[in-house]
Amino acid sequence: MPKLNALIITIILLAIAGIAGKVVYDEFSNPQYRRVVIENNFNSEDAVSDTQQVIADTDTEIRKIETETKSRKILFVGDLMLDREVENLIKKNSVLYPFQKINKFTEKYDFVFGNLEGPIVENPPSFSQKSLTFAFSKNVIEGLAFGNFDVVSLANNHTLNMKEKGLAETRKFLAEGNIKAVGDPLKCSENFLYQKNDLVFLAFNKTYAKSCADEEIVKTIKLISSASPENFIIVNIHWGDEYQLTSSPAQQKLARKIIDAGADLIIGHHPHVVQEIGIYKNKLVFYSLGNFIFDQYFSKNTQEGLAVEVEIYPSQKVPRDIFSSKKETVQRKLIFRLFPLESKLSQPILMSSEDAERFLEKLAERSDQNLFDKIKSGIIK
Fold first, then answer.
1. How many domains does the structure of the chain reveal?
2. Which of 57, 84, 99, 153 has the greatest number of beta carbons closer than 10 A?
3. Does 198 fall in a domain?
4. What is the number of other CB atoms lying within 10 angstroms of the CB of residue 21?
């Protein structure tokens, strides 16, 4: 009996070994496998290099999949002016001072975008507290980084306060701080855009008599839109009348032209107060987000602002109707969240829930009435 048991065990072990051998043989017979084994035997350095490349390619593919399946969040705020009394407060406290009560809020976004209302220069001159000429010290880059800013617009009426040299220094210091600059105070070509994947940021200045003509802005947007129709085009624009709570007819007319040209979203600034929200062809127009950091303490409206969160979901291609010349179009799910801000001695902070509710109700009253309930709720989708 013991011999019979031993024989059975031996037969089982041989069967297992045979199966394993067959698997190994089949795998080794695969030409691709044999090529890799042979190459590894002859050049281990190449094998390591190939492995590293595979890992890199895999990481790239993972990031691509995440980009295609994950929503992205952008936060837009209004004007940032870091001279005059703001500079005094920075000197008394810290370069981080203007952002200390808001940076925890801004850190959760993929992009934070604001309008930089002045140049950053090596040796800023001292101006009076009533001066309308601005120049910021280069250490404000540290403050902007602390505030989590990724992109700023230079398309406004103050970035040339220190002439072309000051504008060049501004671009240089922003680049060194890894902050992207968009737009130009005078020019309006596609050369001053910033693009990240399918997101395109543009900025134009309409406050100079010699600044971008409407036709030039439309031409630039059409050029970008036609080149890549799947892109999401965000137009930031410096326009309108200061301290007016509603947009002008000129703003409204240009907004329609910009959207007709292919823009998906318009973000405005310059009036120093929050203007109404409009909608045209299902595209939103935020005519002015008001001040974010400023020293205009003379009114409540100039010490209030609006931060707009835009959550952008991955695009989907859907069939167009039979009358369209295109077979399909790109659609995105968008969610807009509105965050009313108040500023106390040039430190923006989120309003209390009660104050935010009152603010949004007033904003809804002067905005497009199709958006009334959504603006009141603080969410537009």
1. 1
2. 153
3. yes
4. 10
Angle at 208 between CA 207 and CA 214, to 5 degrees: 75
Query: Is residue 92 one of the residues assigned to a domain?
Result: yes
pLDDT value at residue 24:
38
Range of the domain at 177: 74-380
Q: What is the pTM of this model?
A: 0.81
Distances (CA, A) of 304 to 37, 258, 292, 327, 359: 68, 27, 8, 46, 9
Token code pair at residue 271: 């009036």
The CATH number that applies at residue 338 is 3.60.21
Q: Tell me, rounded to whole angstroms, the distance of Cα 314 from its chain centroid.
A: 15
How far is 159 from 170, CA to CA, in rounded Å?
8
Q: What is the pLDDT of residue 331?
A: 84
pLDDT at residue 60, rounded to an integer: 61
Tokens of 98: 């203007």
Distance from chain centroid for Cα 2: 78
Q: What pLDDT is stored for residue 235 in this prediction?
A: 98
Amino acid at 221: I
Asked whether residue 316 is domain-assigned, the answer is yes
Mean confidence (pLDDT) of the chain: 87
pLDDT above 90 for 33: no
What's the CA gap between 3 and 14, in Å, rounded?
Answer: 17
**For residue range 110-119, what is the model confidence (pLDDT) as tens digits?**
999 999 999 9
**Residue 252 lies inside a defined structural domain of this protein:** yes
Residue whose C-alpha is closest to residue 173's, from 192, 156, 191, 152: 152
CA nearest to 231, candidates 216, 221, 243? 221
Classify residue 115 by burial, with Cβ atoms within 10 Å: 0-12, 13-18, 19+.
buried
pLDDT digits (tens, 9 = 90+) for 302-313: 999 999 999 999
Main-chain phi, psi angles of 348, to 5 degrees: -70, 145
Q: How far apart are CA 120 and CA 138, in angstroms?
A: 5
Residue among 29, 110, 25 at smallest CA distance from 72: 110
Tokens of 229: 């129709």
For 61, 231, 279, the CA distances from 79, given in Å and listed in that order, are 38, 26, 22
What's residue 35's pLDDT?
38
Q: At what angle do helices 31-42 and 2-29 cross, to 10 degrees?
A: 80
